[in-house]
Amino acid sequence: LRIVDIIEKKRDGEVLTKEEIEFFVTGYTNGSIPDYQASAFLMAVFFQKMTTEEQGHLTMAMAESGDQIDLSAIEGVKVDKHSTGGVGDTTTLILAPLVAACGVPVAKMSGRGLGHTGGTLDKLEAIEGFHVEISTEQFIQQVNELKIAVIGQSGNLTPADKKLYALRDVTATVDSIPLIASSIMSKKLAAGADAIVLDVKTGAGAFMKTLEDSRQLADAMVAIGNEVGRNTSAVISDMSQPLGLAIGNALEVKEAIETLQGKGPADLTELCLVLGSKMLLAAGKAASDVDARAQLQSVIKNGEALRLFGELIKAQGGNAEVIANPDLLPHAQYQIEVPAKQSGYVSEIDADEVGVAAMLLGAGRATKEDVIDLSVGIVLCRKIGDYVKEGEPLAILHSNKQQVDDSIKLLQDHIYISAEKAEAPSLIHSL
Ligand code: URA
Ligand code: CA
């Protein structure tokens, strides 16, 4: 095989074979194919796209390019959830103990990542003593005993994706559904999932801003998953405003505890029930949506889900007393109100800008080296559709500095208020 022939074939819109795709992925990962040829290949895919079968081959080749986590020593169907990311998305912290309490093994590998707030790992580290660096053996043992464990990414997972993603970033080829879908799915497969539930976000605060693009990405990932033999389903959920009320690491842990107590924000609770139901169905633990939902609601009501969150914290060295006493979480020195500049209904919240306001307070990272302040963030007092009087708070900033004019201005400028009554957006766009 010669890479130039493979580039030409894709350039002319032909369908590549498994061998040709593997040749490209292997060659680029080991350095025998140079950046300029890989760039030409990616641009050809950008314009000519790929069939589901080709995307399946690309996904598998990337998943197999480095270490793969073997979860076969864990009994039962290992269901992973993946969200394409948004602002204040606290779902993993809630879903993991929620579905584990229903008997689904949760072997979660999470990331830190860049963004408005930390990743799941950073949030968990807001709990004093919690550590995520445990060996693979301990990880598997903990899941077998407790049904739940969360670790950071260890080993050399999907090096092909890391290298290709960096190249796409500088060759204007990020925005390609076959490339995004195979990138995301390769990481889920390498992490050992038998079944995958995808939460594809849509709206102003999401990676995919339009419903049409989100639907295409969801369809592509579901098709790839099923092509490579993993039961895969997707939900498209709203990110036109932040999910829940809290944005910030310790603040989101508190919100997760409240949600596990059955006292969480309605949208966050509902999304967890929808995603959790899909996870129970994929694991064969529920006969129907109605049955799944009833099981999830029952482990919230009887305290089992919250108890398991406490067990997880204890097993990984954290102070489980935060469950009963969330005031033990780190908290910021100042709480500063963001007053509404006029009376009316909140008609729109630019989630991305709320995220930026949280980042300015220190809740997130702009570069990999940045240190997060786990105690800071934003708690929204109003969401789309709510009425607010001039001078009443739109949000409360939790900050360790007194000078927060930039965050206040961002929120006042991007939480839009209208005289007419506004409708709350629907949370779930498509199942
Ligand atoms: N997230 C990923 O993991 N990969 C992409 O290509 C885009 C977003
Ligand atoms: Ca939240």
Uncertain residue segments: none
Write down the Rg. Answer: 22 Å
What fraction, in percent, of the residue positions are helical? 40-55%
Mean pLDDT: 95
Which kinds of small molecule does this entry bind, naming each only once?
A: uracil, calcium ion
Largest sheet: 4 strands, mixed
- How many helices in DSSP terms? 16
The SS-based structural class is: alpha/beta
The SSE order reads: HHHHEHEHHEHHEHEEHHHHEEHEEEHEE
How is the quaternary structure best described? single chain
Strand content: 15-25%
Q: Roughly how many Å apart are the termini?
A: 42 Å
Write the layout of secondary structure elements.
Elements lengths: L2 H9 L6 H13 L4 H14 L3 H12 L15 E5 L7 H10 L5 E5 L9 H6 L10 H11 L1 E5 L6 H11 L7 H14 L4 E8 L8 H17 L3 E8 L7 E2 L1 H12 L5 H17 L6 H13 L2 H12 L18 E6 L4 E6 L1 H11 L15 E4 L6 E2 L4 E7 L5 H10 E4 L9 E3 L1
Parallel strand pairs: 1-4, 2-3, 4-5
Antiparallel strand pairs: 5-13, 6-9, 7-11, 8-10, 8-12, 9-11
Helix pairs in contact: 1-3, 2-4, 2-8, 4-9, 4-10, 5-11, 5-12, 5-14, 9-10, 12-13, 15-16
Explain what you see.
The structure is a single chain. By secondary structure, this protein is α/β, with parallel strands linked by helices. The chain has 16 helices and 13 strands. The strands form four sheets. The chain has a four-stranded mixed β-sheet with strand order 1-4-5-13, sandwiched between helices. Helix 4 packs across helix 10, helix 12 crosses helix 13 and helix 15 runs antiparallel to helix 16. The longest helix has 17 residues. It is globular and about 70 Å long. The mean pLDDT is 95. It binds uracil and calcium ion (CA). Uracil binds next to helix 9. Pfam families: Glycos_trans_3N, Glycos_transf_3, PYNP_C. Catalyzes phosphorolysis of the pyrimidine nucleosides uridine, thymidine and 2'-deoxyuridine with the formation of the corresponding pyrimidine base and ribose-1-phosphate.
